[in-house]
Structure formats: structure tokens, C-alpha cells
Amino acid sequence: MSLRLVGIAGSFNRPSKTYALVEHIAGLAAESYGLATKVYDLKDVGPSLGTALSRSELDQQARTVLDDIVNADVLVVGSPTYKG
């Protein structure tokens, strides 16, 4: 079983430079170390993340992304900078 890398880009926009960067880094790591990868952005999480007070209130889409993040062996996180 290969190690799992999950990338998360803190962007709602598509296309996103932040997502592209996270995806690129995840691809390089996968190629170099044989990792299984999955990359998400905040749009993939869906709207329930902002309204849920507990994990049980998340919709299935958000729960799936959160489970992937929690179960990952490696995380790559990118945060966009507005007018940085």
C-alpha cells in the first residue's frame, strides 16, 4: 500500500494559481516517492463546511474531503495571497 498525499488549496476560484501550485507539488512528490495523491480546493469541500458546528453536520461531500485529509500520510496546503 502506497502512502497517501492530500493537497488542499484554500481557494474558491477556478482556475486557481494556488490550486495549480499545490497540484504541481503533489505531482512532483508522487513521482519522486510513489505517493497516491488527491488534490482539493475549497469548492470541493462545499458549503456545509462554513455552517457546520460539528463533523456530524457536514454533508457527504465535505465529510469525504475531511476524511481524506485526516487519513493522509502527507499534506500539501496552499493558501492564496490577495495582493501580496
Question: How would you portray this structure in words?
Answer:
- It is a single chain.
- The chain is of the alpha/beta class.
- The protein has one domain (4-78): Rossmann fold (3-Layer(aba) Sandwich).
- Helix content is 43%, strand content 20%.
- The protein is built from 4 helices and 3 strands; from the N terminus they run E-H-E-H-H-H-E.
- The chain has helices spanning 17-33, 42-45, 48-51, 60-70; strands spanning 4-9, 36-41, 74-78.
- It has a 3-stranded parallel β-sheet, with helices on both faces.
- Strand 1, helix 1 and strand 2 form a beta-alpha-beta unit.
- It starts with a strand and ends in a 6-residue tail after the last strand.
Inertia-based shape: flat
| Sheet with most strands | 3 strands, parallel
Give the helix tally. Answer: 4
Tell me the domain tally.
Answer: 1
Helix content: 40-55%
According to CATH, what is the class?
Alpha Beta
Walk me through the topology:
Elements lengths: L3 E6 L7 H17 L2 E6 H4 L2 H4 L8 H11 L3 E5 L6
Parallel strand pairs: 1-2, 1-3
